From TrEMBL:
Residues 448-510, 568-634 are annotated as: Disordered. It catalyses: ATP + H2O = ADP + phosphate + H(+). The gene is deaD. It is found in: Cytoplasm. GO terms for molecular function: ATP binding; ATP hydrolysis activity; RNA helicase activity; RNA strand annealing activity. This is ATP-dependent RNA helicase DeaD. Its main location: cytoplasm. InterPro entries: CsdA_RRM, DbpA/CsdA_RNA-bd_dom, DEAD/DEAH_box_helicase_dom, DEAD/DEAH_RhlB, DEAD_box_RNA_helicases, DeaD_dimer, DEAD_helicase_DeaD, Helicase_ATP-bd. It comes from Psychrosphaera saromensis. Its EC number is 3.6.4.13. The keyword Amino-acid biosynthesis does not apply.
Length: 634
């Protein structure tokens, strides 16, 4: 790929002696770095900054958390011409959260640069606001691929003065299906543009991008952190899905934590779990892609300040969160892949502090648990489950503390007289009355835990197998899966690797007023809906193209404001005018069950007839996966 491989970075002692002043940064940028409090560059900063300042293309292979944002932002600022009031640096990121984070970093590092402007652009944000900012003039644009493509197609993003393109977290853009968009953008920029590509891993498609677009790049490899997390205690607990809430509640009672992030797979799960924890007295809130950006920022700020203690988040929504007080990460749902697990766990143990991570895995997910251990070179220890007696003691101690608080802060004369009168009327001791009142007070959350201990099983000897458990899970799903190919598809679907689809996520057929004769393709529809409705492509089901309209399956419980936004969204200059398909049961999924697309729509008849619908929605996979292979929008 390249012969200009930079030798391994200096030893820690040598890097520690290197200062930012030694890297050739401009005085204004160096002043900003000093005011931020940075003293010595991280290895990736020490290696990349001189190459970027020298005008070389750079391939940086490093994980999140190594300081790569400063590695490209600092030298990029040094190369700007403040007199040119149009974009000179374009940064592509996989998520809006990361785009905002990178834009904020540019603002911080450009504190001493007069008149500097950076603009984050991403789907879900008012397009007109972005247009006004672009017209006023910006020096750096940080955006997600889909929205950058939108502006380029509409010629509202002037790249005539572009000096540098930075691809941040390229492998994550590949994983999310945006790599075609990235290549489209790269084809559109000038050939002499300097390019810096950063990625934690180097899959084949990223190597292809590197070979096609980077010119004789300098390669900087930073030792992966997947094998570190040495300051984070990682544990697992084997538990069935319907028992997770009980297990989580018990764990929350036992551990001492400041802040916590609980990861789940779906947006709907974030709200449901947040409601259940709030009802149990925890300061918890959901963080997902359905929220507007200001709400999300407010949620993260509340976690930082202590107004919230627990955030329940999806992987994409939590990307870029850096909150020091997060002492625990709970993987309530197992992630889809090892990289996601590493990213999740990395949300705790920040700034050198101790962190803790607990992972819930169902019996059939033991194999993936073992894969995570192997790939991260980490041993994930079994969680030591508390006994019923321990949980009872903790609950009683908490109850006594509440009683003490009430005795010291409340006027209890009325209640004391009520108890004394009741005892006299019934010829009872006051202690008996107090016992009855305590019983009534704890009915919602019983103090005494009896019966079985915490659900689940952490038999370490059983982790590589449990054939019986896996077969039982297959039985629960209504039969064995058809083969490896469908299992792989399942890993990309909403339900994740071989898991049941959440019965609460119901799909509804909607009609949109754009079809084949307008030049629309399934990729256009997926991209527009994902972009404007802030809806992950995995929640976009089958798409049936007709000459003058199309039918697309979307979640039935979409908020009214999202539906209204989609009514006004345009594809091929046609407003979607989204509405529920009037044929009801004759929606796209039902037609395909009866033998495929017989009316000229794209796609082949299904061989398995309606069986896939009986398995809980697998029939949605084929077209969704096919659509997602083309350029998508954020």
């Amino acid at each position: 790929m390249t012969e200009n491989v930079v030798e391994p970075q200096p030893e820690a002692a040598e890097v520690a002696q290197l200062k930012f002043a030694d890297l050739g940064l401009s005085p204004a940028v160096l002043d900003a770095v000093t005011s931020v409090g940075y003293e010595t560059p991280s290895p990736i900063q020490a290696e990349c900054i001189p190459h970027i300042l020298n005008g070389d293309d750079v391939l940086g292979i490093a994980q999140t958390g190594t300081g790569k944002t400063a590695a490209f932002a600092l030298p990029a600022l040094c190369k700007l011409d403040a007199k040119i009031n149009s974009p000179q640096v374009l940064v592509l990121t996989p998520t809006r959260e990361l785009a905002i984070q990178v834009a904020e970093a540019f603002t911080t590092y450009a504190e001493k640069l007069k008149g500097f402007h950076v603009l984050p652009i991403y789907g879900g944000q008012d397009f007109r606001t972005q247009l006004r900012s672009l017209k006023r003039g910006v020096h750096v644009v940080v955006g997600t691929p889909g929205r950058v493509m939108d502006h380029m197609r509409r010629e509202t993003l002037d790249l005539s003065n572009l000096k540098m393109v930075i691809l941040d977290e390229a492998d994550e853009m590949l994983r999310m299906g945006f790599i075609d968009d990235v290549e489209w953008i790269m084809e559109s920029v000038a050939k002499n543009t300097q390019i810096a590509l950063f990625s934690a891993t180097m899959p084949a498609q990223i190597l292809k991008v590197t070979k096609n677009y980077l010119k004789n790049p300098k390669e900087v490899r930073i030792k992966p952190k997947t094998a570190s997390h040495s300051n984070i205690t990682q544990q697992y607990w084997i538990v069935n899905n319907n028992q997770k809430l009980d297990v989580l509640t018990r764990i929350l009672e036992l551990i001492q934590f400041e802040g916590m992030i609980i990861f789940v797979k779906t947006r709907q799960s974030t709200g449901e779990l947040a409601d259940k924890l709030s009802a149990r007295g925890y300061a918890a809130a959901a963080l997902n892609g359905d929220m507007n950006q200001s709400h999300r920022e407010q949620c993260i700020e509340s976690l930082k300040s202590g107004r919230l203690d627990i955030i329940i988040a999806t992987d994409v929504a939590a990307r870029g969160i850096d909150v020091e007080r997060v002492t625990y990460v709970i993987n309530y749902d197992l992630p889809y892949d090892v990289e996601s697990y590493v990213h999740r766990v990395g949300r705790t143990g920040r700034a050198g502090r101790k962190g803790n991570a607990i992972l819930f895995a169902s019996p059939r997910e033991r194999r993936l648990l073992k894969t995570i251990e192997r790939e991260t070179k980490q041993t994930i220890l079994p969680y030591e489950a508390p006994s019923n007696e321990e949980v009872t003691q903790l609950r009683v101690a908490g109850f006594k503390e509440k009683m003490t608080d009430a005795l010291g802060s409340q006027d209890l004369d009325f209640f004391n007289k009520l108890a004394a009168d009741f005892a006299a009327e019934h010829e009872m001791e006051v202690s008996e009355v107090a016992g009855a009142l305590a019983y009534l007070a704890q009915q919602e959350a019983p103090l005494q835990v009896t019966g079985r201990s915490m659900p689940g099983n952490n038999n370490a000897d059983d982790r590589g197998g449990d054939r019986g458990g896996r077969d039982r899970d297959r039985g629960e799903r209504g039969g064995r899966e058809r083969g490896g190919r469908d299992r792989d598809r399942g890993e990309r679907s909403e339900r994740g690797p071989r898991t049941e689809r959440d019965p609460g996520v119901k799909m509804q057929a909607y009609r949109i007023e754009v079809g084949r004769e307008h030049g629309a393709t399934p990729r256009d529809i997926v991209g527009a809906i994902a972009n404007e409705a802030n809806l992950s492509s995995k929640f976009i089901g089958n798409i049936k193209l007709m000459p003058n309209f199309s039918v697309v399956e979307l979640p039935a419980d979409m908020p009214a404001e999202v539906q209204q936004q989609l009514k006004q969204t345009r594809i091929r200059n046609q407003p979607l005018d989204l509405k529920v398909d009037p044929r009801g049961g004759e929606g796209v999924g039902a037609r395909e069950e009866r033998g495929g697309r017989r009316d000229g729509g794209a796609g082949r008849p299904r061989r398995d007839g309606g069986a896939s619908r009986a398995r809980g929605g697998e029939g949605h996979r084929g077209q969704r996966d096919g659509a997602s292979r083309g350029p998508k929008r954020d």
